[in-house]
């Protein structure tokens, strides 16, 4: 309600779009559980990661560097490292004894972190457009699709994905209401850090089709059939470039 009172419509819209993207991907993931075709999953990962990487390069990096070239760059480096740390430590949730599925816990933790980044970015630069927000949450659809597919294969309810689907707004909305400090160096570090974490998430979603990778784990290929991944690799590269190209064209037409 406070976000509505403050007329923070961009963050409200982005939060709902993130929820809808993940929620609407659930039935698609459930239906895909009985199939072995990974083209949709790879396309989703590729389009999302390409869009996110390009968005970070176009919208976020220049802003961080404009605040301060050195401290902005330092913030980006710290953000990438922190993103790796969050991802690595979140993996420990897979060994938890909680009654909630580990996939749901990891996605929820990831979504809460993403919400912090979105809120920070828009608190620092409230004039940023909806296009950036859409690019930031573009990975929610593929993530929900993959998770619901995995849960269905394991015989669990895919409706559990609704929990992480709502998590972005829980942290993005309050953080976006904060008043950012006026110090240039502090702003450079904060914005650079958010940019670095965003970069890590985008890179982590690259659909790498290597033996033992996340795409290979979704197939039923034997270890000696790894050469069959070649067609998936070509599909992954094409969709990643298309995701980046889409954002660039949208930026060119809008700005």
UniProtKB/TrEMBL annotation:
<feature type="transmembrane region" description="Helical">
    <location>
        <begin position="42"/>
        <end position="61"/>
    </location>
</feature>
<keyword id="KW-1133">Transmembrane helix</keyword>
<feature type="transmembrane region" description="Helical">
    <location>
        <begin position="158"/>
        <end position="178"/>
    </location>
</feature>
<feature type="transmembrane region" description="Helical">
    <location>
        <begin position="70"/>
        <end position="90"/>
    </location>
</feature>
<feature type="transmembrane region" description="Helical">
    <location>
        <begin position="110"/>
        <end position="137"/>
    </location>
</feature>
<feature type="transmembrane region" description="Helical">
    <location>
        <begin position="235"/>
        <end position="254"/>
    </location>
</feature>
<keyword id="KW-0812">Transmembrane</keyword>
<feature type="transmembrane region" description="Helical">
    <location>
        <begin position="12"/>
        <end position="30"/>
    </location>
</feature>
<feature type="transmembrane region" description="Helical">
    <location>
        <begin position="184"/>
        <end position="206"/>
    </location>
</feature>
<keyword id="KW-0472">Membrane</keyword>
<protein>
    <recommendedName>
        <fullName>Zinc transporter, ZIP family</fullName>
    </recommendedName>
</protein>
